[in-house]
Please model this.
Amino acid sequence: MNTGSITRAGALCLALLLAACGADAVGSAATGAAVKQQELENAQRTQQQVQQDLQKALEMPAERAKRLDQ
Model:
């Protein structure tokens, strides 16, 4: 082996290493985005449930008043 082929082999190894790190970073970002999406969906479901519960709670006194008036 001459110095030129060692330099090329080193450059190739470095390029492969950097590419692998980039792929890992992209995979981590995609995983993080999926987790955030799931958290958002869960939060939206919770918000809807709380709004429904609040609406029911607000309607209860009116229903009781109607029953008492009858």
Q: What stands out?
A: The chain has a mean pLDDT of 80.
